[in-house]
Amino acid sequence: MPKPKLTTKSLLTHWVRLLAVFVAACREGRKLEAQQVKSSVVAWFEWARQQRIVKAMSGEVVYTPEGEAVELLSMMRRYPVRE
User: Fold this and answer.
1) Contact 61/71 with Cβ under 8 angstroms?
2) Is the pTM of this model over 0.85?
3) In 3-state terms, what secondary structure has residue 69?
4) Which residues in 7-77 belong to E strands, given as ranges?
5) Strand partners, 62
6) What is the pLDDT along the chain (83 residues), one digit of tens a residue?
């Protein structure tokens, strides 16, 4: 089965939904589900790769096109998904 094409709009919608789930979970004192976190990281990585911000990912480290290893969360903060 072919992968659905990730658009900036779909990624932004995904992030907004994830944020809403996170806020609701915090208010209720629940912990965020690991699968939701993993899904958002994969979506961000695919977006960043299409934008040529990163080239590869291994665990919690991403690699820039220049080969520099950078912490994943740092890059996600530095390059949020934008429309």
Assistant:
1) yes
2) no
3) strand
4) 56-58, 61-63, 69-71
5) 57, 70
6) 455 566 777 767 777 777 777 777 777 776 666 666 677 888 899 999 999 999 999 988 999 999 999 999 899 999 998 75
SS3 33: coil
**Separation CA 30–CA 26 (nearest Å):** 6
* Assigned token pair, 54: 């990163």
Dihedral sign computed on CA atoms, order 46, 49, 53, 56? positive
Q: What is the CA radius of gyration of the chain?
A: 14
The token pair that represents 1 in the structure block: 């089965």
Quick check: 8 and 81 in contact, CB under 8 A? yes
Domain ranges of the chain: 8-78
